[in-house]
């Protein structure tokens, strides 16, 4: 008799538990990688190898995340406060290693999402896999529009085509009959940039006289630069990795050739100019969506000061003026903002949030630039740029913010 | 036409960079019969030491001297710790070990100093001078002069001094060198030390042009290997001529051969090296080994 009662009690409890589980599931079965007090996020990027500088993205993300964890965690949209656990893997910028890292992070570490995955070929390499596994790949560090998993991806930095539009815009106003020479990185990056630039100058008096390719492995680019100089161009556009870009900046100053020099933000960061010699970089023009941070002393700008605190306590491996590291920090901040808005702990919900950003602010963005996306049509959060000219000491903003919202193109 | 001369001039300037590393590779090969793939990265490490000393306020020349002494020690320590225990291993194993040295020193630089490129002061006055419309860099001329002096000194030491001859003997045939009273281990150790010094000097000469970074030397290695092969692995002077030839053919090939372009530019010097090896298998200045029966 007693036994039966116990059994019946058990049965009722079991049924109740089953019912509870079922109702819970219909609300939102948490995706892998998230518990009541932690959420696991994966980062892969080149921490070593010839372009290890790009590893600054991962370091910047880490700084922002450690800051949030140090403040108790992120109060997420479902009311629970969670700490972020980062899994950071090195891929040396090799797309195959990126894929291997992502497999490991998804299947073994069980991360909830990937953030800040660096470089275009690497993001392309994992597109199919993340679509199959339905893993969000958010705030990619890649400026190319040819993506292959748009449902599970969201970009971050402006496309190179947006930067090309900004440069063309500047020339149209300030040098309408420019004769242009390109030093371009011979990858998707450079191709995207030039195609967009060519489109933007159609119907103007601007002409491209010469184009010379460069790879990030070239020991020197003197040969290309001499050919560009001999073309008779009066405007030099540099789309190259920091070492080759730095050499090109030095060349235009040393060689007696004095073109108007436009440098994409691949190689216009302050530390690159320092390695070149600040006086050699005087007059160059670049574009960015970040505020210029010129000193590691408190500036009174709350966003910048918090950034300086964060990189100091995280003991990052880049200097404060490194824009790649700053971008990483800004990506970390965007991640935290998305989590704060995450009402249900699922991957689908995260994609919904990041595909519907409406004017989100970012502590490191130039005033007037915000993040906007639109589900189904726009997965590029930053589509505005500010032009800067280097005065030998620091970057000075020139003109107003150039707005290209919703116009990112191939 | 002035573009042609400018391309030749910058080819020579770039060639001097390749020659610098090739010289260190040839020295270690001559002294120990090993091609050290990690030579460039060991050199980068020494260049970082120079930079660090200068950050601490040591004047340039003193910092360079101190780093060169340090480089000698680094060469010897590397030999004692890494190479000597593997001395009897087959040559393939040694090759893998020197690749390990490459990775080790690169990682050490990155760990200590970070990945960002740094400016490195030149031993020579900045800028250059013009001959007609052609611009010549003072640093390229200076680098070449120093390299030539080193190559001549190396040639002299290897050919005419007891030390040089003993080092060659030790590299050539360890067993028999012992029989004629050569302290083989000591000679190999000195070979590593000297090669490390020449490498460090090369890095110090190159760094102002390439910017100091942990991977500064990595892309140079391929060109330097081509240069050493072209010039002949046992000739210091050959390394310099080889380096310059590689630099110039690369520069002209990339500009004047439309199907090559800047992407494929390394193919030109490699093709040149192949052709020369077909005609003269020991390289331009290499000497044939005579085997008497």
Automatic annotation (TrEMBL), chain A:
<dbReference type="InterPro" id="IPR028081">
    <property type="entry name" value="Leu-bd"/>
</dbReference>
<keyword id="KW-0732">Signal</keyword>
<dbReference type="InterPro" id="IPR028082">
    <property type="entry name" value="Peripla_BP_I"/>
</dbReference>
<protein>
    <submittedName>
        <fullName>ABC-type branched-subunit amino acid transport system substrate-binding protein</fullName>
    </submittedName>
</protein>
<dbReference type="Pfam" id="PF13458">
    <property type="entry name" value="Peripla_BP_6"/>
</dbReference>
<feature type="domain" description="Leucine-binding protein">
    <location>
        <begin position="38"/>
        <end position="374"/>
    </location>
</feature>
<feature type="signal peptide">
    <location>
        <begin position="1"/>
        <end position="27"/>
    </location>
</feature>
<comment type="similarity">
    <text>Belongs to the leucine-binding protein family.</text>
</comment>
UniProtKB/TrEMBL annotation, chain B:
<feature type="transmembrane region" description="Helical">
    <location>
        <begin position="95"/>
        <end position="114"/>
    </location>
</feature>
<dbReference type="GO" id="GO:0006865">
    <property type="term" value="P:amino acid transport"/>
</dbReference>
<feature type="transmembrane region" description="Helical">
    <location>
        <begin position="134"/>
        <end position="158"/>
    </location>
</feature>
<dbReference type="GO" id="GO:0005886">
    <property type="term" value="C:plasma membrane"/>
</dbReference>
<keyword id="KW-0813">Transport</keyword>
<feature type="transmembrane region" description="Helical">
    <location>
        <begin position="266"/>
        <end position="288"/>
    </location>
</feature>
<dbReference type="GO" id="GO:0022857">
    <property type="term" value="F:transmembrane transporter activity"/>
</dbReference>
<keyword id="KW-0029">Amino-acid transport</keyword>
<dbReference type="Pfam" id="PF02653">
    <property type="entry name" value="BPD_transp_2"/>
</dbReference>
<feature type="transmembrane region" description="Helical">
    <location>
        <begin position="212"/>
        <end position="230"/>
    </location>
</feature>
<dbReference type="InterPro" id="IPR052157">
    <property type="entry name" value="BCAA_transport_permease"/>
</dbReference>
<keyword id="KW-1133">Transmembrane helix</keyword>
<feature type="transmembrane region" description="Helical">
    <location>
        <begin position="60"/>
        <end position="83"/>
    </location>
</feature>
<keyword id="KW-1003">Cell membrane</keyword>
<keyword id="KW-0472">Membrane</keyword>
<protein>
    <submittedName>
        <fullName>Branched-chain amino acid transport system permease protein</fullName>
    </submittedName>
</protein>
<comment type="similarity">
    <text>Belongs to the binding-protein-dependent transport system permease family. LivHM subfamily.</text>
</comment>
<feature type="transmembrane region" description="Helical">
    <location>
        <begin position="237"/>
        <end position="260"/>
    </location>
</feature>
<feature type="transmembrane region" description="Helical">
    <location>
        <begin position="187"/>
        <end position="206"/>
    </location>
</feature>
<keyword id="KW-0812">Transmembrane</keyword>
<dbReference type="InterPro" id="IPR001851">
    <property type="entry name" value="ABC_transp_permease"/>
</dbReference>
<feature type="transmembrane region" description="Helical">
    <location>
        <begin position="7"/>
        <end position="29"/>
    </location>
</feature>
């Amino acid at each position: 008799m007693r036994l039966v009662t116990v059994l019946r009690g058990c049965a009722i409890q079991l049924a109740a538990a089953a019912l509870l589980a079922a109702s819970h599931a219909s609300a939102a079965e948490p995706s892998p990688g998230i518990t009541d007090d932690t959420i696991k996020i994966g980062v892969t990027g080149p921490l070593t190898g010839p372009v290890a500088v790009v590893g600054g993205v991962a370091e910047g993300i880490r700084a922002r995340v450690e800051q949030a964890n140090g403040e108790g965690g992120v109060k997420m949209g479902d009311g629970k406060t969670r700490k972020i656990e980062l899994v950071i893997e090195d891929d040396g910028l090799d797309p195959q290693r990126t894929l291997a890292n992502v497999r490991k992070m998804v299947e073994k570490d069980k991360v909830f999402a990937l953030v800040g995955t660096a470089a275009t070929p690497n993001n392309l390499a994992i597109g199919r896999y993340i679509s199959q596994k339905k893993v969000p790949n958010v705030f990619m560090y890649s400026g190319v529009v040819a993506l292959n998993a748009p449902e599970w991806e969201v970009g971050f930095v402006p496309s190179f085509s947006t930067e090309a539009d900004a440069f063309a815009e500047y020339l149209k106003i300030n040098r309408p009959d420019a004769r242009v020479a390109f030093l371009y990185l011979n990858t998707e990056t450079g191709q995207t940039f030039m195609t967009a630039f060519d489109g933007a100058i159609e119907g103007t008096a601007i002409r491209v006289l010469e184009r010379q390719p460069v790879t990030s492995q070239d020991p020197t680019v003197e040969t290309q630069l001499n050919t560009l100089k001999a073309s008779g161009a009066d405007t030099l556009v540099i789309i190259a990795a920091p070492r080759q870009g730095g050499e090109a900046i030095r060349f235009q100053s040393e060689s007696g050739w004095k073109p108007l020099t436009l440098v994409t933000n691949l190689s216009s960061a302050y530390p690159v100019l320092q390695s070149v010699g600040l006086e050699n970089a005087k007059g160059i023009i670049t574009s960015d969506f970040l505020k210029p941070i010129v000193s590691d002393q408190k500036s009174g700008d709350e966003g910048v000061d918090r950034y300086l605190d964060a990189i100091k306590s995280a003991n990052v491996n880049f200097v404060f003026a490194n824009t790649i590291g700053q971008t990483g920090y800004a990506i970390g901040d965007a991640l935290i903002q998305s989590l704060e808005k995450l009402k249900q702990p699922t991957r689908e919900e995260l994609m919904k949030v990041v595909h519907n950003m409406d004017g989100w602010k970012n502590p490191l963005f130039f005033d007037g630039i915000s993040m906007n996306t639109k589900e189904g049509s726009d997965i590029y959060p930053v589509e505005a740029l500010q032009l800067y000219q280097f005065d030998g000491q620091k970057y000075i903003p020139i003109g107003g913010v150039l707005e290209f919202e919703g116009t990112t193109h191939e | 036409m002035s573009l042609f001369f400018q391309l030749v001039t910058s080819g020579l300037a770039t060639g001097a960079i390749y020659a610098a590393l090739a010289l260190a590779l040839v020295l270690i090969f001559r002294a120990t019969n090993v091609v050290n793939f990690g030579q460039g990265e060991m050199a980068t490490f020494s260049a970082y030491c120079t930079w660090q000393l200068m950050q601490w306020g040591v004047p340039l020349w003193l910092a360079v001297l101190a780093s060169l002494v340090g480089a000698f020690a680094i060469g010897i320590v590397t030999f004692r710790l890494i190479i000597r225990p593997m001395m009897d291993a087959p040559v393939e194993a040694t090759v893998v070990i020197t690749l390990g040295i490459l990775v080790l020193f690169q990682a050490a630089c990155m760990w200590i100093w970070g990945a960002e490129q740094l400016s490195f002061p030149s031993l020579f006055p900045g800028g250059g001078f013009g001959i007609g419309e052609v611009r010549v860099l003072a640093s390229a001329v200076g680098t070449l002069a120093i390299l030539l002096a080193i190559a001549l000194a190396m040639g002299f030491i290897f050919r005419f001094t007891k030390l040089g001859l003993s080092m060659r003997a030790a590299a050539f045939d360890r067993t028999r060198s012992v029989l004629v009273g050569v302290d083989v281990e000591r000679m190999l150790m000195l070979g590593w030390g000297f090669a490390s010094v020449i490498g460090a000097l090369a890095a110090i000469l190159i760094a102002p042009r390439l910017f100091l970074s942990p991977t500064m030397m990595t892309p140079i290695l391929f060109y330097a290997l081509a240069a050493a092969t072209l010039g002949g692995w046992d000739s210091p002077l050959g390394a310099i001529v080889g380096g310059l030839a590689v630099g110039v053919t690369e520069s002209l090939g990339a500009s004047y051969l439309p199907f090559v372009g800047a992407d494929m530019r390394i193919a030109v010097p490699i093709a040149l090296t192949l052709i020369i090896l077909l005609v003269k298998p020991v390289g331009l200045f290499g000497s044939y080994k005579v085997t008497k029966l």
